[in-house]
Design a protein that fits this description.
Oligomer: single chain
Structural class: mainly alpha
Low-confidence stretches: 211-235, 245-264
Mean pLDDT: 78
Number of helices: 7
Helix content: over 70%
Strand content: under 5%
Largest sheet: none
């Protein structure tokens, strides 16, 4: 009688365990599958943004063209990482959770077989072993699945942060005044006076784009040392160019009228630098 009572208790415990497993792991599978699909949709939207950025860059002056083109390349590179994120989620998170649907059906069939057996003592021992084995496997799988989920997300966001940090610093180097000078010189206005700082400031002040407050410098803005080194390098280049031009008697030619120099490594996208480094190795 005690054996029958113990077996009935174990059968109920096993059925409850299977129901909880089917319920919660099924919910996790459904939610994470939706999460993965939306991540893939976000990747597709970013690809459209890249195309639009490239089209917009082709209409701009050199400073805008360089920075927006670099932005497009870096956003595209991040989508490669996002694609890897989607594939890893499908293989290492969704697939293991989905497999529990079939596993629960098998275990239910085993429980029904145990209920039909006449050997109560043997049935009780087998049921106990089956419960412990199933619970141990479930705990190990849950631990591995969510550890993989967190690792996949950390890898993607770490690479995205690395790329976008470079992208942000690259955008900060865009010389808006230089493009404004070129734009003003193309304006069909007779006797156009030289563009001075007051005009540039007026253009800046009338811009319809709101000036958003900057986040904390420690998180998003380029390090002060980076800004100082970039400014000191540009100032040194300007001084060297002025010394070379002192001995020339030719009429001054504005930089906007001459060929635009290709951006140096500082002005390259992260994607371009990464590709060149890979080719050199």
């Amino acid at each position: 009688m005690n054996s029958l009572f113990s077996r009935d208790t174990q059968i109920k415990a096993m059925q409850s365990l299977l129901n909880d497993t089917e319920n919660y792991l099924g919910q996790f599978c459904t939610t994470l599958a939706s999460y993965t699909r939306k991540t893939a949709k976000l990747r597709d939207k970013a690809d459209i943004l890249v195309m639009q950025l490239n089209e917009f860059a082709s209409t701009g002056d050199p400073e805008l063209r360089t920075c927006i083109k670099n932005l497009a390349e870096d956003v595209s590179m991040v989508q490669d990482y996002r694609q890897a994120e989607v594939e890893r989620l499908e293989a290492r998170v969704i697939a293991p959770l989905k497999s529990y649907g079939g596993l629960v059906k098998i275990k239910r069939a085993e429980v029904n077989a145990q209920k039909a057996t006449n050997n109560a003592h043997r049935s009780t021992r087998q049921m106990e072993e089956s419960i412990m084995e199933f619970q141990r496997q479930k705990l190990e799988d849950v631990k591995r699945v969510f550890s993989d989920f967190i690792m996949i997300e950390m890898l993607f966001h770490a690479k995205a942060l690395e790329v976008y940090t470079h992208t942000f610093q690259n955008l900060e180097t865009m010389d808006i005044d230089k493009d404004l000078e070129m734009f003003m010189r193309r304006m069909p206005v007779s006797d156009l006076p030289p563009l001075d700082n007051q005009i540039l400031q007026s253009v800046h002040s009338t811009s319809p784009i709101p000036a958003y407050s900057s986040p904390t410098p420690s998180t998003t803005r380029p390090p002060p040392s980076y800004i100082r080194s970039r400014k000191s390098t540009l100032r040194q280049q300007d001084e060297e160019e002025e010394e070379e031009e002192e001995g020339e008697e030719e009429e001054e030619v504005y930089e906007s009228e001459g060929p635009y120099e290709e951006p140096q490594s500082l002005r390259e996208s992260y994607a371009a630098q990464y590709t060149r480094a890979r080719r050199q190795t």
